[in-house]
Amino acid sequence: MYMLLDVNTDIYPLQVDDKFTMALSSTLSLDGTPDDATFDQSGRKSLADKYEYVMYGKLYKFSDKESGGNVKIEVYVSFGGLLMLLQGDPSNLGNLMMDQRLYLLMRKVG
């Protein structure tokens, strides 16, 4: 899997060689219940509580790329102008759909 990601380093500083864990999710509910894409101010526990940096965006481009007989999928997501490109095996990215709303969650490790 290859990832190219814009991060707002003014609010979440990252350095070259920093290690982090990253997750993509369609909901912040711990039980997987779909949300209505509004900010929940109730104080209820959510997936975001387990991470330091969270962005919400939309998958705007999805394409197949073939090279040397290997098929790779390219997925492009915009998080309010901060962009992400994921390239990888279709089995890892096959559940994503065009115009899908996604949360990206990150935290540093080590």
Automatic annotation (TrEMBL):
Coiled coil: none annotated. One of its GO terms (molecular function) is DNA-directed RNA polymerase activity. Gene3D superfamilies: Nucleic acid-binding proteins. One of its GO terms (biological process) is DNA-templated transcription. Its main location: nucleus. It is found in: Nucleus. Keywords: Nucleus. One of its GO terms (cellular component) is RNA polymerase III complex. Belongs to the eukaryotic RPB8 RNA polymerase subunit family. This is DNA-directed RNA polymerases I, II, and III subunit RPABC3. It comes from Ceratopteris richardii.
